[in-house]
Specification:
Elements (H helix, E strand, L loop, with lengths): L23 H13 L3 E2 L9 H11 L3 E4 L4 E3 H17 L7 E6 L3 H13 L2 E6 L4 H11 L3 E4 L8 H9 L3 E4 L21 E7 L7 E6 H15 L6 E4 L7 H7 L7 E4 L2 H4 L2 H10 L4 E4 L1 H10 L13 E4 L6 H10 L4 E6 L9 E4 L11 E5 L3 E8 L5 E3 L5 E8 L5 E2 L3 H7 E3 L9 E12 L10 E7 L3 E4 L2 E4 H9 L19
Parallel strand pairs: 2-11, 4-5, 4-6, 6-7, 10-11, 12-13, 13-14
Antiparallel strand pairs: 1-17, 2-3, 8-9, 9-20, 14-15, 15-16, 16-23, 17-18, 17-19, 19-22, 21-22, 22-23, 24-25
Length: 506
């Protein structure tokens, strides 16, 4: 696996990726369709500055609260100093540019400080959630080639599974408390180039072996600004960090407001998993933006009658992600929370998190399945279908195809895993993008015509995984569509459809 090699040597260069088989005529047609239907969205953004530079700018200009986690609160100046103390600790432990460092435990301020410190010294962040079993911790740290694991807990409080997994991976454990005695690091952030790998997040693999998706600095920061642009975020916004560390959404939840002078509220599990307590926290802490999976949105609405009247009155946005958002759940949200927008977000970890956004409105509810929308800034989306000769052809409106993603958001592939990288990443045949890569999502989509769902332009509709399409008696079926119909019934909370084959009597 060559885990000891530098990260860049464990990633495939663009020229080593396969070339997607698209005839030249179809390349031109795909470009034209993407441009005509709004699937290309270019915009200049300030993605060449480290996040820590923005933190220190706000610390100097107008120091204000930056982050709180229920245990303590730090201003921008205090956060900047803590990050630089962590940077000194990292250097003392032998961390160099390009080193992979694990950060593990609960959601706490220390995770954010360590994340910014890794940016300062030019190292890569790989999270290890404190709730993971030891085997998962071992696999992630081992495959990442992590040199050490920073734990937010003190030496005697490190969860047993986290300690056991780190030791099995041969990874040194360094408690975050060690940074308290360090002098602040005095160097400049070591950002050598925009394609510098910034973090590694592990997704589940079909073989049971996790895949380490590597995201570049420009992809990460572009996604942060995409959220700011589409949500209209300002320095007055307060974003709730509710995601476990192992999920890609934890990154933007943890750092996005810091680009604006806003505030991050880190919500502990005991509050995040109690919907009445969570609603109270949203109100008490002035949280304006929340992101949850649809299942948790449903639980929140179910339990809201037990919360004080007027709960969530200051909420501006609810973002639904990670699962398909049912139309009936959206109807409930729009009726209960007319003051708070509902954003349907879609995207793979391999592409720096979300690549589409869609603000749900009443006309969307007439559709069988909600749109996932249109591309975030600086991403390019192509809907392609396989042909009988093994090539790919572009899909127009109302045609079902597979979604491919290009643009700044596309990551570097899977760390130390060339075979699975070549199966999902290709040289981009459509545009000369900064990454030069095209990612195959494996998701079936349809481009809805303008006017569908009240939009004045075409939008994408998610139809499920490509491998969930089945044929019954020669008729192609979308299992996800059957589930969507079942979930429209008021007596059905959730549905899952599977196909069973039965033998026939001779």
């Amino acid at each position: 696996m060559n885990a000891g090699l530098p990260v860049r040597d464990r990633l495939l260069p663009v020229e080593a990726l396969p070339v997607l088989d698209v005839p030249s005529a179809e390349i031109a047609r795909a470009r034209e369709l993407a441009a005509r239907h709004g699937m290309v969205r270019d915009r200049g953004l300030d993605i060449d500055a480290p996040v820590i530079a923005r933190v220190e700018r706000f610390a100097a200009e107008r120091d204000r609260p930056a982050v709180a986690d229920g245990r303590r609160q730090l201003s921008y100046a205090e956060l900047a100093v803590e990050a630089r103390r962590f940077a000194t600790l990292l250097e003392r432990e032998g961390v160099e540019p390009g080193t992979v460092v694990g950060v593990g435990g609960e959601r706490r301020i220390e995770v954010l400080a360590a994340f910014l410190a890794l940016e300062l010294v030019g190292a890569l962040y790989v999270p290890a959630d404190g709730s993971w079993p030891a085997g998962r911790v071992r696999d992630v740290l081992d495959q990442a080639g992590a040199a050490l694991l920073i734990t937010v807990e003190d030496e005697g409080e490190v969860p047993a599974a986290l300690r056991e997994g780190a030791e099995a991976a041969g990874c040194r454990i360094v408690p975050a408390s060690g940074a308290r005695e360090c002098e602040p690091w005095r160097g400049e952030a070591r950002l050598e180039s925009l394609d510098q790998p910034r973090y590694v997040l592990f997704t589940s693999g079909s073989t049971g072996r996790p895949k380490g998706a590597v995201v570049e600095h420009r992809g990460m920061v572009n996604h942060l600004w995409a959220k700011i642009v589409d949500l209209g975020m300002t320095g007055d916004d307060v974003l709730a960090m509710t995601s476990p560390l192992g999920f890609d959404i934890s990154v933007w939840q943890m750092v996005c407001p810091l680009l604006l002078g806003g505030r991050v509220e880190i919500v502990p599990d005991e509050v995040a998993h109690d919907q009445v307590a969570f609603a109270r926290a949203v109100d008490d802490r002035g949280i304006t933006v929340v992101e949850l999976v649809p299942t948790m949105v449903r639980h929140l609405l179910d339990d809201l009658p037990d919360a004080p009247a007027g709960s969530l009155g200051g909420l501006r946005w609810m973002i639904a992600t990670g699962e398909e958002l049912p139309a009936e759940l959206s109807r409930r949200w729009l009726e209960a929370m007319p003051h708070a927008g509902l954003l349907n977000a879609y995207g793979p970890t391999e592409c720096s998190d979300d690549v589409t956004h869609h603000s749900v409105t009443a006309p969307d509810l007439e559709l069988l399945r909600l749109p996932i929308g249109s591309p975030i800034v600086n991403s390019r989306l192509y809907v392609l279908r396989g042909t009988e000769d093994g090539a790919w052809a572009a899909c127009d409106v109302d045609e079902v195809g597979e979604l491919f993603v290009g643009g700044i958001c596309v990551g570097r592939g899977y760390l130390g895993d060339p075979d699975r990288t070549r199966a999902a990443f290709f040289q981009d045949p459509f545009e000369s993008s900064p990454t030069g890569r095209l990612y195959r999502t494996g998701d079936a989509v349809r481009l809805l015509p303008a006017g569908a769902g009240g939009e004045d332009r075409p939008v994408l509709q998610y139809l499920g995984r490509v491998d969930r399409q089945v044929k019954i008696a020669g008729v192609r079926m979308e299992l996800g569509e059957i589930e969507a119909v079942l979930q429209r019934h008021p007596g059905v909370g959730a549905a899952a459809v599977v196909v069973h084959e039965f033998g026939h009597a001779e």
